[in-house]
Design goal:
By secondary structure, the chain is of the alpha/beta class. It contains nine helices and eight strands. An eight-stranded mixed sheet has the order 1-8-7-6-2-5-3-4, with helices on both faces. The longest helix has 15 residues.
Amino acid sequence: MHLDHSHEGPAAISADAHRGDGTRRALRVGLGGPVGSGKTATVAALCRALRDQFSIAVVTNDIYTREDAAFLLRNAVLPPERIQAVETGACPHTAIRDDISANLEAVEDLEDSVGPLDLILVESGGDNLTATFSKGLVDAQIFVIDVAGGDDIPRKGGPGVTTADLLVVNKTDLAPYVGSDLGRMARDAKEQRAELPVVFQSLRSQAGVAQVADWVREQLAAWAA
C-alpha cells in the first residue's frame, strides 16, 4: 500500500555535494523511529536492494552497545569495513541532532577508507516521535513506525512523522493480529503530512523494501544531478 501524494520529485536537496578536497561526497540518508519499528531491518533490506548498483556504507547509533552494527555484520549485508558503529552514551537523538560530531567523523572515516561512496545510511538508535536528524548530518530523512505500536501513531504526529522526507509504516503483515486499521493510518498520515510521501511496507512480503529503495534511487538521481 503506497500513498502517492503526487510528491513533486525527490526531497529538496540543497547541501553542498562536495567534500573539502573538491571530490563529490556521498548522499547521506538518515533513518529514525521508535524502538522496534524495524529501522535496522529496513537498512539491511536497502543494502541488499541497492548494493549491486551503488557504493554504500552504513553508520549505526546505539547508546552503549553496537548491536545494530552487529546485526548488519551477521547478515553480511555489506563488507565489514563499510559498517561503522557510534556509541552515543546518551539518548540517540542527541548524536543525530544536537552534537553530530561523532557521526560526522564516522561518515568522513568511511569516505576516506572505502570511498568514493554513493550513499551513506545513518541509522539512529530507537527513540520517540520527536527524533529528527540535523540537516548538517543528513541530506534526507526516513522515519520508520510500525503498526504494532498502535494505529494512532500517525495521528499523534511529532516531528518525525510530520516532517521526515519519507514516512515508512512498517510491519503491515501484523495489522490483523494487533487490531491496527491501515486505512485509518493512511488517512491520518495524509492529514499530518499533506504532500509528503508515505510507504506502507512489510519486509516479509514479496515487495519488501522495493518502494523505499525506489525512493532512495530518486534521491541519488537528484544528488548526482
